[in-house]
Structures are given as structure tokens and as C-alpha cells.
Specification:
Blueprint lengths: L9 H12 L5 H8 L3 H14 L20 H14 L3 H8 L3 H10 L28 E9 L7 H4 L1 H15 L2 E2 L2 E2 L3 E9 L5 E6 L4 H17 L6 E4 L8 H9 L3 E4 L9 H15 L7 H17 L23
Parallel strand pairs: 1-6, 6-7
Antiparallel strand pairs: 1-4, 2-3, 4-5
Length: 330
């Protein structure tokens, strides 16, 4: 496309070419008049002879062949990871061993560079904040996943077979209520450090205050083993976090308790986003033949998340931010 300071616009190219081809001007004379090189003048004259006035228009500068173009097999793997696991360019690049910029270029060409094209749309602008060091604040919350029946859930075996598996499992465990199978719910108490994104997760049978307090105590001890001292904790306004026992336990641990604004889950957005990662990467990532099998897979996935999974916000795995802290190696 011609720019404002181009020596030859399509109209000027046509005048140059007609002077050489039709008016029999020499190439050198015409080139001197239009202040271009003889090579350029000869190029436009040749194109005019073969294509006429249409040949004076701009052409794409895209090469006919691209030897360094990403191979189709690799493009397919990138797209599969994007669709199936909702990973970003940094995570996909880390898994495949290629540059994140290459992954992003592929996602743009395939028109799946924005998660809103393939995932839930929030409609809210992203507002990022980050506390200055590990332990400055931890986010605590509870997420729930329905237990998987023996033989697999409906997501992988279909609704009809899934309902049959659920009924058989409920009959075996004695959890049929009023004729309806109920195989229970897994309550995942999750804790994530604001600065490093290091996560701690426990699967429990309920979300009562006593259970949440036990998770907090064990999580604080676990973070202490990693060299992190917890200073603040942020929770929503759930009943377990509004109890006096939670308040007193936080005070005994020397932790300042803060709560989010009511009906504003965005305030605790880091752990809400972690729940999506937990669902996509572990809970529904593959076929599980039973709930026991899924629970056995959690420690391995959590280790992968903390130590190996590239986090797009920090450019490395979460534990990479626990190194070289002040006094960490003293």
C-alpha cells in the first residue's frame, strides 16, 4: 500500500509506464523525470506491457513460500491445548518448548487468541493488583465438585450411562434419598498466595467453620515450611469465615483477616481464577473411573501447578517466586 511520501503512487506509475511504452521515452529519461532508478522504471513498464493499467496497483508483500512457518502438526497441538485445557500462550509454549510469541501468532491466525471466543465471557475489564512479597496476603475460599460415580461421569460416558453409574454408586454407598441417587460433593478448601500464586488445597466433606479453621492452620504451617510467613488472609463472607472461632484463630496465628465486598467475587479474583484452572486442569481434565481415582490425581496435579506450570502473570511457575527472598538463604 502506498504511503504519503511514496515516490510513485498507482497514478504516477501509470504515467511513467505510458511514457516509456506508448510515447517511446527512454527508460533513463523517464526515470530521471520521476526521480526513481532505471530499474524501478523498467519494472513498471514491463508490468504495464503484460497487465495493463491493472498492474499498477499495489500487491501483497507476502512471500509465496515461508520456510520458517510453524508446521501444521505443531499448530494442531497448540489449538488442541487451547481448546481442551484453556491454556494461554505462555503455558502452551512452556509445554511444547516453543516461544510464547509463536503460540500467540498461531492463536491469532486461528482466531482463538481471546478466551472470550471459546470460554465464559465476564464483560468486566481486568484489574490487576499484586502484594509485594509472599505471605503478604493469602486468598482462601471453598469450591465444590460433584463426586464421580463408579464407571465415570456424564461428561465422558454420556448422560444416560452417567445416570446409570450414579444410581449404581448411590445404591452401593447407601446414599439414595427419596428415590434419587446422591453420591455426595467434594468440598475443596483452597488457599493461594497473592504474590507467588503458590496453592494449597484440601478435599473435605463439608465447609463448616471447624473444617475451614483446620485447613487454615495446616495451610499456614505448610507455607511456613516453604519459608513464607502469612500476614493477612482474604475471604468472602461465607458463614465459616464470619464465625468467632475463625476470628480468634486468625488472631492467634498473628494474621489480619479481611473480607471481600458483598456480592463482589472479583475482589477475590485470583482464587476464583484458580478454581477455573483447577476444574480445567484436574477435575474435568480427563476421564476418571471413580471419585477415588480423581482424588488420587490431585497431589500430582498440584505439584505440577506449583513447580512446573508456567503462570502467565508471573512468567514462570509459582514456586519460582519463593526463591531469593530477603533472608531466605541466610
Amino acid at each position: 500500500m502506498s504511503h504519503a511520501n511514496a515516490a510513485l503512487t498507482p497514478r504516477a506509475r501509470l504515467r511513467l509506464a505510458t511514457l516509456i511504452v506508448e510515447d517511446r521515452w527512454t527508460v533513463a529519461t523517464a526515470a530521471k523525470m520521476f526521480m526513481v532508478s532505471p530499474v524501478t522504471a523498467r519494472k513498471w513498464a514491463t508490468r504495464y506491457r503484460s497487465e495493463g493499467a491493472e498492474g499498477m496497483q499495489d500487491r501483497s508483500s507476502r512471500p509465496l513460500t515461508m520456510p520458517t512457518k510453524t508446521p501444521p502438526d505443531q499448530v494442531k497441538r497448540i489449538v488442541q491445548l487451547r481448546w481442551r485445557q484453556r491454556l494461554g500462550p505462555v503455558q502452551i509454549g512452556g509445554q511444547l518448548g516453543i516461544a510464547s510469541s509463536t503460540v500467540h501468532a498461531v492463536l491469532v491466525r486461528c482466531r482463538i487468541n481471546r478466551l472470550s471466543h471459546i470460554d465464559r465471557v465476564t464483560g468486566e475489564p481486568i484489574r490487576r493488583y499484586e502484594h509485594p512479597h509472599p505471605g503478604s496476603m493469602i486468598h482462601v475460599d471453598v469450591t465444590k465438585f460433584g463426586n464421580i460415580p463408579d464407571g465415570g461421569g456424564w461428561r465422558y460416558v454420556g448422560v444416560q450411562q452417567g445416570d446409570k453409574n450414579k444410581a449404581v454408586t448411590a445404591l452401593r454407598t447407601g446414599r439414595t434419598e427419596k428415590g434419587h441417587p446422591n453420591i455426595g460433593t467434594a468440598f475443596l478448601h483452597t488457599v493461594i498466595d497473592d504474590h507467588s500464586r503458590v496453592a494449597y488445597v484440601e478435599i473435605c466433606d463439608d465447609e463448616k467453620a471447624a473444617t475451614a479453621i483446620g485447613v487454615l492452620v495446616r495451610a499456614v504451617a505448610w507455607f511456613a515450611q516453604q519459608g513464607v510467613t502469612v500476614e493477612r488472609v482474604l475471604t468472602d463472607n461465607g458463614s465459616c469465615y464470619r464465625s468467632y472461632a475463625w476470628r480468634d484463630t486468625s488472631a492467634d496465628l498473628g494474621i489480619v483477616h479481611k473480607r471481600t465486598r458483598p456480592y463482589r467475587p472479583q475482589t477475590n479474583g485470583k482464587i476464583e481464577r484458580f478454581h477455573r484452572t483447577l476444574a480445567d486442569g484436574w477435575a474435568y481434565a480427563r476421564f476418571y473411573a471413580s471419585e477415588t481415582e480423581r482424588r488420587q490425581a490431585l497431589p500430582g496435579w498440584l505439584h505440577f501447578y506449583n513447580h512446573h506450570r508456567i503462570h502467565s502473570a508471573i512468567g514462570g511457575p509459582p514456586t519460582s517466586r519463593l526463591n531469593n527472598l530477603p533472608g531466605h538463604h541466610s
